[in-house]
Specification:
Number of strands: 7
CATH superfamily of the largest domain: NAD(P)-binding Rossmann-like Domain
Strand order of the largest sheet: 3-2-1-4-5
Mean pLDDT: 92
CATH architecture of the largest domain: 3-Layer(aba) Sandwich
Helix content: 40-55%
Low-confidence stretches: none
Shape: elongated
Distance between the termini: 37 Å
């Protein structure tokens, strides 16, 4: 079963510095979580992301899972080294700390399989999964789907979603029922002036208008 785990503000540890670690880190950027990558040698991408502050890079050699005891609040540990036995030891240590644990290409020892992710504007994440049966097929289908989805889901869809994210909390506190909120958000989606402001890149003005309409709607 594919789920969307809420990682906002949580700590995620990736062990490994190669291509698989690259993919795992990149998939996490849209989750607004703290990413820590631990490895003895980091790829160019991971090194650059560390310099940019998108993740914390700790250069050290890992020989077992004992290093995890130095972290006080990880929720997820992803073992992405090229040593399957080491990955399993890391997973076992993570589970003993009650963390969700994942080992690359080793579904039997993981709490979940990691789908191939299509990330559109850090707003839409579309997962392709075979449940661990064939990661290479999931990646193959992902590459075939990605250009199609980029045609179907445009910048206006991303902006509308980001606007609704801005006002969602206030709408939940203001409107009394799920049905009322559904009607309000449907109205916002089709509102001509809001769409015009979004197309002009005026997100703050679009938000201000949406908030005015919320007061009228309540």
């Amino acid at each position: 079963m594919i789920i969307d785990l809420n990682l906002m503000g949580k700590q995620v540890i990736i062990v490994g510095g190669g291509r698989e670690a690259d993919r795992k880190a990149e998939a996490l950027f849209s989750q607004d979580c703290e990413i820590v990558v631990i490895c003895d040698r980091a790829s160019d991408k991971i090194s650059q992301w560390g310099k940019e502050g998108r993740l914390t890079l700790k250069l050290q050699k890992v020989s077992d899972g004992n290093f995890l005891t130095y972290f006080d609040r990880p929720i997820l540990v992803m073992a992405a080294t090229d040593d399957i036995q080491l990955n399993r030891e890391i997973v076992a240590a993570a589970k003993s700390l009650r963390c969700y644990a994942y080992s690359v290409d080793d579904p039997e020892f993981s709490d979940f399989s990691h789908p191939a992710i299509i990330n559109l504007g850090d707003t839409f994440q579309i997962a392709v999964s075979t449940g661990g049966k064939s990661p290479i097929m999931a990646k193959n289908i992902k590459h075939r789907l990605e250009p199609v989805l980029k045609e179907l889901i445009g910048k206006d869809d991303i902006l509308k979603t980001q606007l609704q994210a801005r006002i969602r909390k206030l709408a939940q506190n203001t409107l009394p029922s799920p049905q009322a909120r559904k009607q309000f958000f449907a109205m916002i989606l089709s509102h001509g002036e809001i769409n015009r402001l979004l197309n002009q890149g005026k997100m703050d003005d679009a938000e201000a208008l949406a908030l005015k309409l919320l007061q009228v709607h309540c």
